[in-house]
Design a protein that fits this description.
Helices cover about 10% and strands about 40% of the residues. It is mainly beta. It has a six-stranded mixed beta sheet with strand order 8-7-6-5-10-9, with no helix packed on it.
Length: about 140
Amino acid sequence: MEVAFVPPQIDAPRRATVASVSLRGDGTATVFFDGVADAGAASRLAGCSCLVRRAEVADRLPLAAQAHPWLGWQMVDAQMGPVGQISDIQEGPAQSRLVVRTDAGREVLVPLVEEFIVGEDEGNGRLLVQLPAGLLDL
Protein backbone atom coordinates (compact mmCIF):
# COMPACT_ATOMS: atom_id res chain seq x y z
CA MET A 1 0.00 0.00 0.00
CA GLU A 2 1.41 3.36 -1.02
CA VAL A 3 1.20 6.35 1.35
CA ALA A 4 1.91 10.05 0.90
CA PHE A 5 3.48 11.93 3.81
CA VAL A 6 2.01 15.33 4.67
CA PRO A 7 3.17 17.91 5.17
CA PRO A 8 6.15 17.17 2.89
CA GLN A 9 9.50 17.29 4.67
CA ILE A 10 12.85 18.44 3.29
CA ASP A 11 15.29 15.56 2.72
CA ALA A 12 12.63 12.92 3.36
CA PRO A 13 10.56 10.84 0.95
CA ARG A 14 7.17 12.21 -0.06
CA ARG A 15 5.78 8.73 -0.79
CA ALA A 16 6.60 5.23 0.35
CA THR A 17 5.17 1.73 0.36
CA VAL A 18 4.22 -0.01 3.60
CA ALA A 19 6.69 -2.86 4.14
CA SER A 20 5.30 -4.16 7.44
CA VAL A 21 3.20 -3.24 10.43
CA SER A 22 3.92 -4.25 14.01
CA LEU A 23 0.98 -3.90 16.41
CA ARG A 24 1.78 -2.72 19.92
CA GLY A 25 -0.12 -3.56 23.08
CA ASP A 26 -1.30 0.02 23.64
CA GLY A 27 -3.50 0.17 20.53
CA THR A 28 -0.84 1.79 18.35
CA ALA A 29 1.34 0.36 15.63
CA THR A 30 4.85 0.77 14.30
CA VAL A 31 4.87 0.98 10.51
CA PHE A 32 7.95 0.25 8.40
CA PHE A 33 8.16 1.73 4.90
CA ASP A 34 10.18 0.71 1.86
CA GLY A 35 12.07 3.81 0.78
CA VAL A 36 12.67 5.11 4.32
CA ALA A 37 16.24 3.92 4.47
CA ASP A 38 17.51 5.05 7.85
CA ALA A 39 16.60 6.43 11.25
CA GLY A 40 17.36 9.98 10.10
CA ALA A 41 14.76 9.82 7.34
CA ALA A 42 12.29 8.21 9.73
CA SER A 43 12.82 10.95 12.34
CA ARG A 44 12.15 13.65 9.70
CA LEU A 45 8.79 11.98 9.02
CA ALA A 46 7.82 11.87 12.71
CA GLY A 47 4.60 13.81 13.20
CA CYS A 48 3.58 13.60 9.54
CA SER A 49 0.24 12.17 8.52
CA CYS A 50 0.06 9.30 6.05
CA LEU A 51 -2.53 9.64 3.30
CA VAL A 52 -3.78 6.47 1.63
CA ARG A 53 -6.08 6.09 -1.36
CA ARG A 54 -9.55 5.15 -0.12
CA ALA A 55 -9.78 2.31 -2.67
CA GLU A 56 -6.78 0.64 -1.03
CA VAL A 57 -8.32 0.58 2.43
CA ALA A 58 -12.08 0.54 1.84
CA ASP A 59 -12.47 -3.07 2.94
CA ARG A 60 -10.35 -2.41 6.05
CA LEU A 61 -12.12 0.74 7.26
CA PRO A 62 -14.34 0.65 10.33
CA LEU A 63 -18.01 0.53 9.44
CA ALA A 64 -18.57 4.11 10.65
CA ALA A 65 -16.02 5.42 8.16
CA GLN A 66 -17.82 3.60 5.35
CA ALA A 67 -21.25 4.90 6.42
CA HIS A 68 -20.88 8.56 5.46
CA PRO A 69 -22.33 8.07 1.95
CA TRP A 70 -25.53 6.86 3.69
CA LEU A 71 -26.31 10.33 5.07
CA GLY A 72 -29.63 11.41 3.62
CA TRP A 73 -30.56 7.85 2.62
CA GLN A 74 -33.72 6.09 3.75
CA MET A 75 -33.34 3.20 6.18
CA VAL A 76 -35.63 0.31 5.29
CA ASP A 77 -36.09 -2.66 7.62
CA ALA A 78 -36.76 -6.11 6.16
CA GLN A 79 -39.74 -6.68 8.51
CA MET A 80 -41.10 -3.20 9.29
CA GLY A 81 -40.46 -1.43 5.99
CA PRO A 82 -39.36 2.25 5.93
CA VAL A 83 -37.80 3.42 9.20
CA GLY A 84 -36.78 6.97 8.29
CA GLN A 85 -33.99 9.13 6.90
CA ILE A 86 -30.39 8.75 8.11
CA SER A 87 -29.50 12.23 9.36
CA ASP A 88 -26.21 11.73 11.19
CA ILE A 89 -23.58 9.29 12.41
CA GLN A 90 -22.59 9.42 16.07
CA GLU A 91 -19.16 7.94 16.57
CA GLY A 92 -18.57 6.57 20.04
CA PRO A 93 -15.60 4.94 21.75
CA ALA A 94 -17.27 1.54 21.87
CA GLN A 95 -19.79 1.71 19.04
CA SER A 96 -21.09 4.11 16.43
CA ARG A 97 -24.76 4.79 15.82
CA LEU A 98 -26.86 5.94 12.89
CA VAL A 99 -29.23 8.78 13.77
CA VAL A 100 -32.50 8.19 11.93
CA ARG A 101 -35.35 10.71 11.72
CA THR A 102 -38.66 8.86 11.38
CA ASP A 103 -41.58 10.10 9.30
CA ALA A 104 -43.27 11.01 12.60
CA GLY A 105 -40.35 13.34 13.38
CA ARG A 106 -38.90 11.12 16.10
CA GLU A 107 -35.12 10.59 16.28
CA VAL A 108 -33.96 7.02 16.83
CA LEU A 109 -30.44 5.70 17.31
CA VAL A 110 -29.52 2.49 15.52
CA PRO A 111 -26.27 0.76 16.49
CA LEU A 112 -23.98 0.61 13.48
CA VAL A 113 -23.13 -3.08 13.41
CA GLU A 114 -22.62 -5.30 10.38
CA GLU A 115 -25.13 -7.85 11.66
CA PHE A 116 -27.99 -5.36 11.14
CA ILE A 117 -27.05 -4.36 7.58
CA VAL A 118 -28.57 -6.46 4.82
CA GLY A 119 -27.44 -4.38 1.86
CA GLU A 120 -27.44 -1.08 0.01
CA ASP A 121 -29.70 0.17 -2.76
CA GLU A 122 -27.37 2.93 -3.96
CA GLY A 123 -29.51 3.83 -6.97
CA ASN A 124 -32.49 4.63 -4.73
CA GLY A 125 -30.51 5.87 -1.70
CA ARG A 126 -31.73 3.13 0.65
CA LEU A 127 -29.92 1.26 3.40
CA LEU A 128 -31.51 -2.14 3.86
CA VAL A 129 -31.40 -3.44 7.43
CA GLN A 130 -32.79 -6.18 9.63
CA LEU A 131 -33.22 -4.73 13.10
CA PRO A 132 -33.98 -6.71 16.25
CA ALA A 133 -37.60 -6.58 17.36
CA GLY A 134 -38.23 -3.73 19.78
CA LEU A 135 -35.06 -1.76 18.97
CA LEU A 136 -36.97 1.22 17.62
CA ASP A 137 -39.25 1.27 20.67
CA LEU A 138 -36.40 2.24 23.00
